[in-house]
TrEMBL record:
SUPFAM superfamilies: Winged helix' DNA-binding domain. PROSITE patterns: HTH_ARSR_2. CDD domains: HTH_ARSR (cd00090). GO terms for molecular function: DNA-binding transcription factor activity. This is ArsR family transcriptional regulator. Residues 1-94 form the HTH arsR-type domain.
């Protein structure tokens, strides 16, 4: 589990629109080179590198050397861990409730079974 400092780093990284856009780009194009990512922004490469450093410190971006370049990948694990911190205990309860609703809805809209039809016919005939 993440400690508060780890989560603070993730929230800080996600707080800036440019960094969120970087994650969107990396989600769509995994393994993108740093230079190609920088070309997507109207700021200096140095500014992009500073944003990347914050994303990497939060564990949201993983880089892999590739010759003279670095390939960048989005790492969803820190966000998933934050999500699970507040949702896991409720997931089982709500999954059960949704399943119950599904079965109730299906039984309410299901056509009558052949057994139910024959019982109704017997009731009308007086049998």
């Amino acid at each position: 589990m993440q400690d508060d400092r780890d989560m603070d780093a993730v929230f800080h990284a996600l707080a800036h629109a440019s960094r969120r856009r970087m994650l969107d780009i990396l989600t769509a194009r995994p393994g993108l080179a740093v230079g190609a990512l920088a070309s997507e922004f109207d700021v200096s490469r140095v500014a992009v590198m500073k944003h990347l450093a914050i994303l990497e410190a939060a564990g949201l971006v993983v880089s892999e050397p590739d010759g003279r370049s670095r390939r960048l990948y989005f790492n969803v694990v820190p966000i998933q861990m934050i999500h699970e911190r507040w949702t896991t205990q409720y997931s089982a309860y709500w999954a059960g409730q949704l399943t119950r609703i599904k079965y109730l809805a299906e039984s309410a809209t299901a056509p009558p079974s052949p057994q139910a039809k024959s019982r109704k016919k017997g009731e009308r005939d007086g049998s």
